[in-house]
């Protein structure tokens, strides 16, 4: 297995449009082993992608878990503003529960009988949607949480970790990130259900209006016969949007994997 070895820079400096036909062997995901997380940038790799206060947006993550080590709950998604921070964890010592925290206060623990975060071969679609200060969280096509959250300032997304008061990444994820999509709209239940039922599509037609709101899409499908990519990934549609994969320390590594949904 070819591995990606990433060295963290300075502190806090990481598709499928309709269908795709693949005639070569490709990597499918990034394997995070309590070792890394993703952040998002626009125009250049120094300008963090942020959404204006109370603006509509959504993030979607196709991901799996794996059997975890240690006694720290791993975080799959963090949404961070100056006044609020919302974090979504795999509940510690369980394989089928999600814990949702707002500013370190527990909002809800959700149990789903049909999920198994210990199974690295089983992938799930997590969608977080913000619509006029209303936050809705879906797993696959099921609503886990609806809650009013007021973002009085800009907010940003992080995948695979949250952050302590010193802005250090903590609660890093165990598992695989197959695809990430960022939208400048609040996705509807109908669209999310379509995405869940059609894992390799983002729309039923190229003419669907909501496609214009697709900010960035990263599928991590990289030819196995090519050179290892850098830790910076550009949107697959060649938009000036980037995700950067950071590592927790110089001894940790993340790896490209054939494992995917």
Quickly describe the structure.
The protein has one helix at 189-197, and strands spanning 26-27, 29-33, 36-42, 57-65, 75-81, 85-90, 97-102, 105-111, 124-131, 134-139, 142-148, 155-159, 162-163, 169-170, 174-183, 214-218, 222-223, 232-234, 241-247, 255-257.
Count of the domains: 1
CATH architecture annotation name: Sandwich
- Low-confidence blocks of residues: 1-22
Quaternary status of these chains? single chain
What CATH first level would be assigned?
A: Mainly Beta
The largest pleated sheet is described as:
8 strands, antiparallel
Number of helices: 1
Radius of gyration: 17 Å
Overall structural class, as computed from helix and strand content, comes to mainly beta
Task: Compute the average pLDDT.
Answer: 86
Fill in the CATH topology: Jelly Rolls
Describe this structure in words.
The chain is about 5% helix and about 40% strand. The protein has one helix at about 190-195, and strands at about 25, 30-35, 35-40, 55-65, 75-80, 85-90, 95-100, 105-110, 125-130, 135-140, 140-150, 155-160, 160-165, 170, 175-185, 215-220, 220-225, 230-235, 240-245, 255. Strands 2, 4, 9, 10, 11, 15, 16 and 20 form an 8-stranded antiparallel sheet that branches. It is mainly β.
């Amino acid at each position: 297995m070819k591995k990606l070895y990433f060295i963290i820079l300075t502190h806090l400096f990481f598709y499928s449009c309709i269908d795709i036909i693949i005639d070569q062997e490709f990597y499918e995901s990034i394997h995070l082993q309590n070792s890394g997380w993703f952040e998002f940038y626009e125009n250049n790799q120094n300008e963090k992608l942020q959404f204006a206060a109370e603006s509509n947006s959504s993030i979607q993550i196709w991901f799996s878990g794996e059997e975890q080590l240690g006694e720290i709950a791993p975080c799959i998604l963090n949404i961070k503003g100056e006044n609020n921070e919302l974090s979504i964890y795999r509940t510690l010592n369980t394989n089928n529960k999600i814990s949702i925290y707002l500013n370190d206060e527990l909002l809800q623990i959700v149990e789903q009988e049909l999920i198994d975060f210990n199974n690295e071969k089983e992938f799930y679609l997590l969608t977080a949607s913000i619509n006029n200060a209303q936050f809705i969280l879906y797993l696959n096509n099921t609503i886990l949480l609806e809650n009013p959250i007021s973002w009085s300032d800009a907010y940003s997304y992080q995948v695979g970790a949250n952050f302590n008061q010193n802005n250090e990444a903590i609660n890093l994820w165990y598992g695989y990130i197959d695809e990430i999509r960022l939208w400048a709209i609040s996705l509807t239940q109908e669209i999310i259900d379509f995405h869940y039922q059609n894992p390799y599509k983002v729309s039923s037609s190229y003419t669907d209006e909501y496609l214009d709101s697709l900010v960035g899409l990263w599928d991590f499908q990289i030819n196995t016969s090519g050179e290892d990519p850098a830790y910076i990934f550009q949107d697959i549609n060649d938009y000036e949007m980037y995700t950067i994969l950071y590592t927790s320390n110089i001894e940790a590594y993340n790896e490209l994997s054939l494992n995917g949904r």
